[in-house]
Amino acid sequence: MFGSLGLPELLLIAFIIVLLFGANKIPEVFRGLGKGIKSFKEEMKKDSTEEKKEDKKLED
Prior knowledge:
- The chain is mainly alpha-helical.
- The chain is 82% helix and 0% strand.
- The chain has helices spanning 7-21, 26-59.
């Protein structure tokens, strides 16, 4: 995915992000992103568990 992006391109993207959000906002943005990913993974795990339970009920 990022194979064609070199260091100069990544630095430019990081610089633009700092300009848009400010240096103080970046940790908050990534913290929110991390919480969102964690929540998504938990929901996927719940869905997987519920599907297994439904499969077992159908087999019986």
